[in-house]
Design brief:
By secondary structure, this protein is mainly β. It has one domain. Helix content is 0%, strand content 64%.
Length: 187
Amino acid sequence: MALADKRLQCREIITKAVCGKGRKFSTVTHTITPPHPPSSILGAWIINHQYEAVKSGDGVEIIGSYDINVWYSYDRNTQTDVAKETVTYSELVPLSYLDPKHRKSTEEVSAEAIQEPNCVEASIQGRNSVAVRVEREFAVEMIAETKVCVAVCPGGCADDGKDAGFAVGMGEDGYEDLDADLLEDEV
């Protein structure tokens, strides 16, 4: 008997699923004050990035830190030094998608740095400071328990799960219909 002839039944299954997603790109400017008034900037880089994600309202808050290193010259470009400063930040990433029917008590969040903090510009500000412009981007997910509705065949599967049709057109080894000219030599 065909599935359409039977009365369709549904069941609710409780499962963990991605119930929220978000992404945020941001640019921030930090001010570093080296011990000597800089003559020129020779380089700037960011190291030791660490962060964690926590649920916050309808979004995910990223709390983190990184070290900014600015290599600069001073004393009319006759000396060089590296100014180092640890910066902390908090970034709220809103969830652009949120399943309203998830169980709030089961929420877990995670974050991935799509673009690690990166110095895109460093310039001398005033007489004694350096402005460092940093870009960063995060993608976040919220996983929680939710209900999923599935169709159930009251009499079970007609073929009892045997030969679900996955091997249609395939020989015993599964390779008889392959075109050898389409295979690439990867040596």
